[in-house]
Amino acid sequence: MTARRGVAAELSQPPELAPVRPGEDLDWDRLTSYLRSDSDLRESIEGIDGPFSVEQFPNGSANLTYLLRFGGDAVVLRRPPFGKIAPGAHDMKREYRVLSRLWRSYPAAPRALHLCTDREVVGSDFTIMEYRRGEVMWGKLTPSMAPLPDAARRVGVATITALAELHLVDPSSCGLEDLGRPEGFVARQVEGWAKRWELVAPQSGGGELMEDVAAHLASSLPAPQRVSILHNDFKLDNCQFRPGDPDKVSAVFDWDMATLGDPLIDLGTVLNYWPDPSDTPDDRPITPPGLEHMGLPTRAEVVEEYQRHTGLDASGASWYEAFACFKTAVVLQQLYARWQRGETKDPRMGERGAFVQPMARRAARILERSS
Q1: Sign of the alpha-carbon torsion through 236, 242, 244, 248
Q2: Could you give the CA distance from residue 133 to residue 243 in angstroms, rounded to a whole number?
Q3: Residue 226 maps to a domain
Q4: Taking the model in full, what pTM does it have?
Q5: Which entry of 252, 310, 312, 360 is 20 to 30 Å from 335 by CA?
Q6: Whole-number pLDDT of residue 6
Q7: Which helix (H) or strand (E) holds 43?
Q8: Helix pair 151-167, 299-310: axis angle to 10 deg
């Protein structure tokens, strides 16, 4: 369990912005020339001809996210990580499609301003979107929140409310009714993530438990109750709050996997990253240090709150939590494999492989308890 605490420790109140990591600079001259030549961006970015500077959002593990400043204005650039990309992952076209439309029906979605598919500019597709200032909870309440009564519980309730509000959006209200293929969605998710595991599974063995978990998930598929817009990576640290306001999520980030499907997939993701006082050391999810002591609602209360807002039956949420845990283990192995291939110099990625088996065991235990 020391290793798992190490992953948590690296997430303790990190800075929102930092200098660009070694090896993750882009061709800034080419990029700025491209952006300044686009007539729509010239209207959207005040001061686009002004002095340019760049910083990086350092806390994500996958997509590369940068803050671009032009004079007095700022926008966000997102692009996939360098190196070999898993099939269907890091889809900037999808993220742009969602965020150029969803903001009209779901105010917590930042508005996407531009999609570039000319890979000569930065080496990949990328999106430009509005920058929203705010605070993210990394293991403890921010200074603006800490003095407020019952702040952590309010943050937790606001997070689940934001999830429920997303799931109640009519996809046709914002032109996203054909975003995905809802029929058979859950089965395809299990099959797809099992195939991703096969692509990155350690050559030395040790993947048998992951294969067993995948088989158990595939043999016990739940029946969906409705079709919703899914974020597909919804969690507390993908939510932003305005300073001093724990009752409303002001922005939700990382939409490149958004689709249509069973909304309880998102609930399972939340539960997979949500600590609970009943957790044993072996069952504790990977979370920033201190999050389990912050005062968040319990996982049972999360389920109750979600049911209250959506009217859905979430009594089978354990299956979805186990699937999310399995998916997390696959992602960790993907990140570690990228580091092994030399496609990233981020030292955090070299530590990811140590957490795959603990996540696999956690998924297996959740399934065993819910059987």
Answers
A1: negative
A2: 9
A3: yes
A4: 0.90
A5: 252
A6: 33
A7: helix 39-44
A8: 40
